[in-house]
Target: Alpha-ribazole phosphatase
Amino acid sequence: MSAVMERRTGQTRTGDPQTPTRFWWLRHGPVPRAAGGAISGREDLACDLSNTAALDWLRQRVPATAVFIASPLIRAVSTGEAVMGRKPDALFPSLMEQDFGRWTGKTWQEVSAEADALGFWDEPADAVPPNGESFSQQCSRVAAFIELARERWAGQDVLVACHGGTIRAALAHALSGASRQPGVTTQVMSFVIDNLSLTRIDALQEGTAICSVNERYQP
Model:
């Protein structure tokens, strides 16, 4: 963050810029309605946090001193609070799930014909759901958050409670950076990101290291 931006926002850099900024990407707990195939998108739905064993495991994995950031949707906030035992340090709308527009709340089967007409199945990263946004657009806003966060919390642990699409967007940024290499955005959509899973990405001065993807509690 430049000195000019620091004066404008009142924000200053913290942490050691020589040390990796360690992002712990946490996907929220399962949304009951989504189990039937409904698209949650940006709808503000509560999640199931009854898996105490998984939550205990997450508490042991994530540093208690981590900066706690979350998407403003309740399923992300409540999951992060269950793990960290406190309120978020900040909420970022840029971390919200992809906006599926009028497909929100419907099942993939219900929107299949319309999705086919839009070319969604052929170009899932770039096709835009009606009144929504593409996954590529989501990737752009998540990338902007990452660049801000790696400056503001340089050298620290940062727990980001968010959504599956948001975490895939973070992986796209890690794999291609600002260059947005052709094909990477589509390829990361193949990653499985389970509920109550962790994906660890370290931001270094010379690049990015993907340390783990979809790490989760194993009974």
